[in-house]
Write a structure and sequence with these properties.
Elements (H helix, E strand, L loop, with lengths): L6 E7 L12 E7 L7 E10 L3 H4 L21 E8 L9 E4 L6 E5 L4 E2 L16 H13 L7 E4 L7 H10 L4 E6 L2 H9 L5 E4 L5 H8 L4 E6 L3 H10 E9 L20 H4 L3 E4 L9 H14 L6 E5 L4 H9 L6 E5 L3
Parallel strand pairs: 8-9, 8-11, 9-10, 11-12, 12-13, 14-15
Antiparallel strand pairs: 1-2, 3-4, 3-6, 3-15, 4-5, 5-7
Length: 339
């Protein structure tokens, strides 16, 4: 076994944010690195993911996933290279996907590591289009929203890691119309010119409900919600009878210190017989083989495009996370570790 690094830098949560997180809520600390115990592998992380759900884990509240512990390393999706193995089936040089991001070196239980083939796609893609965000888009559109050919689809946060894939997948599968919202004119242009959306609008340029009605005068059949708030209310107003909404995220509310009011027009769901259903990607793990096979084919054919916003250096991971919450990313926000 080759010489291992003596220490690793890792980000720890040192204070629970009140409202918007600040850099003072985090600390970059050094910890010792040891040879892996039986059944474990030591991984040098090459790329890590920052995602909206991580904001919820900074609150000490009961949820579908445990909160981050204070003064302990945070975690999240990461892909890296095995530099030492004490587990059968893994060798130094293998690339693996695992859940111990936010650190330079990860001591990983081999049962929770999956090999990543760099010949099929860039390794960072396993954190985005071929990873959790991609599967979220796939399952949320086809399984939760029961998308069918001819549906008109509205996606909020459509230039993000999940939303950009939802809109393209809907087009590939025969949507009659795909509309997206985004937070800048540049992102709106990207949605239409690069991703093939039929229409898009900047939600900062006017009331969402008015812009959505203009973009979808005949209404929508499916809404994929990454934002919540006024977007969800607008979608309820535009959904046709028997419309379906996948509730994936509510990034507009994650940093609120007071409970956000519900959509004022929720009663419309009764007469329209709407179906509003939440999604947790872990419930749809059985779709993984089908997802990888179909999506990798779309990537090879060029039908499906993906964009990454890359921040270099573990020391800049918190800045990348905060930037993602502010909407500074286009596509998947990735932190790449320089060697």
């Amino acid at each position: 076994m080759s010489a291992l690094p003596a220490t690793s830098r890792e980000w720890q949560l040192v204070a629970r944010p009140q409202g918007w997180p600040t850099p003072d809520d985090f600390a970059l600390r050094e910890t010792p690195v040891a040879e892996p115990a039986p059944g474990r592998i030591l991984v040098r992380n090459l790329h890590m993911s920052v995602d909206p759900y991580m904001r919820g884990r900074m609150n000490d509240v009961k949820s579908y996933i445990p909160p981050f512990e204070r003064d302990h390393p945070m975690d999240g999706g990461a892909v890296g290279e095995v530099i030492a193995s004490n587990a059968p089936g893994f060798e130094a040089g293998d690339h693996v996907l695992h859940g111990l991001g936010w650190r330079e070196y990860a001591d990983v239980d081999a049962r929770h590591a999956t090999k990543a083939d760099a010949s099929l796609a860039p390794l960072s893609a396993y954190l985005g289009v071929l990873g959790m965000p991609g599967l979220t888009a796939y399952a949320g559109l086809f399984e939760v929203a029961s998308f069918k050919e001819g549906d008109a689809v509205f996606v909020s946060g459509a230039a993000g890691a999940v939303g950009s894939q939802v809109g393209q997948m809907a087009k590939i599968k025969g949507a009659s119309r795909v509309i997206g919202s985004a937070g800048s004119d540049e992102k709106v242009k990207l949605l239409v010119e690069e991703y093939g959306f039929d229409a898009a609008f900047n939600y900062k340029n006017g009331p969402v409900a008015e812009q959505l009605r203009a973009a979808a005068p005949d209404g929508i059949d499916v809404y994929f919600d990454n934002v919540g708030g006024d977007h969800l209310e607008a979608a309820i107003g535009s959904l046709n009878v028997h419309g379906r909404a996948t509730l994936c995220g509510a990034i507009a509310q994650y940093n609120d210190t007071e409970p956000a009011p519900g959509p004022r027009n929720l009663a419309l769901a009764i007469g329209k017989r709407l179906r509003l259903q939440g999604i947790l990607v872990g419930d749809h793990a059985a779709l993984q083989p089908q997802f990888v096979q179909e999506v990798s084919g779309w990537l090879r054919s060029g039908e499906l495009k993906h964009t990454e916003t890359v921040v270099e250096g573990v020391e800049n991971a918190v800045d990348a996370f905060l930037g993602m919450l502010r909407g500074e990313n286009t596509g998947k926000m990735i932190v790449s570790f320089t060697r």
